[in-house]
Amino acid sequence: MSAPAAAESLVQSVDWLAVAPPTLTAVAALAVLVADLFLPEARKALLGWISVAALAAALLTLLPLLDGDRSTFCLTTDPSVCSYVADRFTLVVQLIVLAGALLAALLSMTALKDEPRRLPAGEYWFLLLSSAAGAALLPASRDLATLIVALEVASLPAFALVGLRHGDRRSSEAALKFFLSSVTATAVSLLGVSFVYAVTGSMHLTVVAEEIQQVDGQFSTLARTGVILTLVGFAFKTAAVPFHFWVPDTYAGAPLPVAAYLSVTGKAVGFTGLILVAVLAFPSYAPVWGPVMAALAALTMTVGNVGALRQRPDRDRSAVRLLAWSSVGQAGYLLVPIAAAAYTDDASRAIGSTLAYALMYAAVNLGAFTVVALVGRGRPAGRVDDHRGLYAARPVAALLLAFFLLSLAGLPPGIVGLFAKVTVFASAVEAGMGWLAVLMAVNVVIALVYYLRWTALLFRPAPEDAPEDAPAARRATAPLTAALVVTGLLAVALSGAPQLILRFTGVTLF
Fold first, then answer.
1. Which of 4, 166, 453, 491 makes a 20 to 30 Å CA pair with 68?
2. Is the distance from CB of 377 to CB of 473 less than 8 angstroms?
3. Separation CA 164–CA 62 (nearest Å)
4. What is the distance in angstroms between the CA of the first residue and the CA of the last residue of the chain?
5. Domain boundaries in the chain?
6. CA-CA distances (angstroms) from residue 380 to 5, 103, 164, 384?
């Protein structure tokens, strides 16, 4: 082969349609940062609309990917081994990530105006879009190097978002805890990845899955250690117990839209990495990581629900802190199907259960954060008790929050939450983990207490010493109303036809 022909064979063609969602988001981040230099202060709000439009456009680029799987950045020696794959799994996670970022952006447009310490708009939108770009890249990553890079691109801007309130001690403390936990997770993951690369000689997940089965006996301990360290690093990102300690303080100290973003997009990032590494790269080590995932699921759902149960309204507890503990408990449910994948021949069905649950959780949890943001405009303290009497002041918002909370609890009329929990429960039963299914049922009952306690509060009379119509003291802005309408319609529609989520994620109940 001549030299020019050999050089030409090494040049890869990029499938721009496949990489459009993260690429468009990243380009928008740079555009916002540059535009911030030229826009006068009075027109900084335009940056928010640019960011919302960019995220909406990135969501639209997912539509052509419905036609079939696409891949790019493949090895020239083996085109079947690629670093970027846009399949159904990628599509579902990118939908969660980008939709979560879009709704967080809508909340942010109001929050940036209401913040007592004005946040720098240009930096805020740049960081949010940068984090969303990394989060959208991660589910398509099919080699360990790209996976770690995408994880850090999603995480590093999030640290700055949490600590962007200059001079706020709680915000700085929250950012520091988030940063230290994430850096520790990355260091542990990188150590594990280095061990895996040492024994397999490859970074691509499919190649690792083949080579790690053929490791010589003298390197088996190194391989096992690499598998465990890599998974432990990703467990930090999912806020699984005992790696959850940063969640309540980080959510409570961050601006509310950032907390909403982390509760959905941040969680999706961690679980996506965990699924890709465990199921694609280390299927032969299922007897090792399966019991670990099951134990993490049991601990996480129990500790999270008990922590949320302690956030009583009569103790001036923060609504965001309660949602933070609730998200830890929900993370336990999301771990159940991943653990089940180790004990079943049809791992894709188990992973589909996790995706179905994640879609439900994203819609209703963002809806709950939206109502909390609405109430917070009149009651900046953000306490659970501030929602007392909300039905009398804002009946639509109260009914929607009640619907979101009942969906998280898995009670009618929140049918979408009930179906999502049934899929997770079924995955545990089919995998022969009856004990985990029973523990999940117990935790669902525990969660009912604090979800119903908050729901009942909405319909009680407001305290006599409270300002008149306190929850309705400030009108909802257009972006806040749009976020509430979108989440409300989505949750109600999916409760009417929950099979749409199940079909989209490839789950069959019967």
1. 491
2. yes
3. 31
4. 57
5. 285-510
6. 66, 20, 18, 12
